[in-house]
Amino acid sequence: MSYTIPAQTRTEIGKGSSRRLRREGKVPAVIYGVGKEPVSIVFDHKDIINIQANDDFYTSVLTIVLDGKEVNVRAQAMQRHVFKPMIDHVDFVYA
Fold first, then answer.
1. pTM of the entire structure?
2. Domains of the chain, first to last
């Protein structure tokens, strides 16, 4: 199954800006890989919370629509809130 996640490039980086994004219902993330510059992104929490419950989310290639351009990635790591059903941060790797 293929998954598509709309995202935007993130310009503000750091703990304070990430906390502000989480309060707004967004998830900060990063895309990195060999030979490419890392890209900080942000997407809506509602766009990922349901699809990450599927097992194939972690093994299949995902499509992130980043500012109108499609980028193929794989989920590398996901940080979750300790007791709330929320995702704090996601690391993606270029596929």
1. 0.89
2. 3-94 (2.40.240.10)
